[in-house]
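Researcher: Structure prediction, please.
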Amino acid sequence: MKTINRRSVKLALIVVVSAGATLVAGETKKEFRFTVRPGSTVSIVNPYGPISLKPAVGNQVLVTVTLHSDKVEVSHEQSGKRVELRSQLLPGADQTSGIAEYAVFIPSTTNVNLHANTGPLRVEKLHGDVIVEAVSALVEVRDINNVHVHIKTMNGPITLSNIHQGHVEVTSISGDVNLNSVSGPLVQVNSSSGKIRYDGDFGAGGDYSLTSHTGDIDAVAPAEAPIDVTAQTVRGKVDSDFDLEAKRIVPRDDNNKSSFLGKAWSLVKLRSFSGKIHLRKR
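Model: Predicted structure follows.
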């Protein structure tokens, strides 16, 4: 009886291992290297699958692509200061068999241009401009300073974190947009039905515009932040911890001066047609 059990176990293990081998057998990995100059641009078009970009030391771009089947190929080209990679869907490819996973390490000053349907798409700790166009992909951009960040999505959620002195423009149809510690001379978010959440200090001397047609807008700022606020909604409701009638929000107690005093004022516009607007003190 014991012998039969052992054989059964061995047979089961063989079946499991074989199934696992079959599952990953269709996957292949490809690696590409490009030598680039400062200010170069890396452009990636990937209909299905994640793209991750992180900084690398030196002047080389290293791209590792995992293809989930033989229904997708990768074309690549370098011309001058531009590197282009594209996932090519072959006949019979679908949202599953057409998946390609990109892991990209680039010099920190390289500009990035991403186009994708699904994702997620993640960019972090770079010092070049970032342009992202997506359909339903989750988009995350963080730890970036002194650059342009332009993002357009249909319904994918967007999260921007720790972006300072940036020129930020976000457009979404129905995806929620989360801004955490985002500041700069221009921060502009437009959404048709998605929610917009801002948690930061609105920088200094910047122009901030958060607009949603039917989605709610939630903003949190320090009580002492030097901001000139306008909150408008046609059919919704404005709920504010600040005195919006005074319009310009100033520190109440001169004896408790904060680091915000003496900074240039930022213009903050919160607008929604039928969504609610919440403005909170941190």
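Model: The first strand starts at residue 28 and ends at 35.
Researcher: Thanks, that helps.
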